[in-house]
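User: Predict structure, ligand copper (II) ion.
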Amino acid sequence: MAMSRVSTMVWLASSDLRREMCWTPAINDWALCKQPLCPCIATPLNPCSTCVNGSRLVAGINNVTFVMPTTALLQAHYFNISGVSTDDFPGNPVTPYNYTGNGPTNIQTRSGTKVYRLAYNSTVQVVIQGNAVIAPESHPIHLHGSNFFVVGKGLGNYDPMNDPKKFNLVDPVERNTLTVPTVGWIVIRFRADNPGVWFMHCHLEVHTTWGLKIAFLVDNGNGPNESIIPPPKDLPTC
Ligand SMILES: [Cu+2]
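Assistant: Predicted complex:
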């Protein structure tokens, strides 16, 4: 199956694209097999000197609370505008802990506008681990730019030794949104063949505003149809 590139990629918009994915279960070239990429879906309390009680409820992934930039990430990427984001989003929790058992009663996050960089056509696996900090909850995780395949899910902490043996590599469902079980996990795989900058976030909007999101920056490839397309001529300038 030929790798396809969507020529109607939406510029500066969050629309998702139904697009062809190449599913080859036998391949084992996971460029990214980080685990767990942990939506510390938690709602940590961070210090806040201007808040009424001195703390602020936040959310995060891998101890990072995402801060929205004032310049769009896609625009900054395309026009090489520096200083908008950094590409050091951690692939694993900065501070590992027992995510679903007797873990900490609170974890603090670091704030930042960070992206996770992917080479064009990388095959990506992401373990999304829910946790029990402060307010265990089921989070609908939504990926822009690609559909993904759901190869595994379960309750408790993801077991990197045994859980992969139970993955469905035959006929996994294809989605762009999936709810992570409360204090459970899911494993998704997708191919990063859509150059650009794509959010993955909790679709409970309040959680998104609290910072429960990550942005994948997919680099251009080398082929003639493997680069990000230019913005439309009528792109608003403000
Ligand atoms: Cu959420």
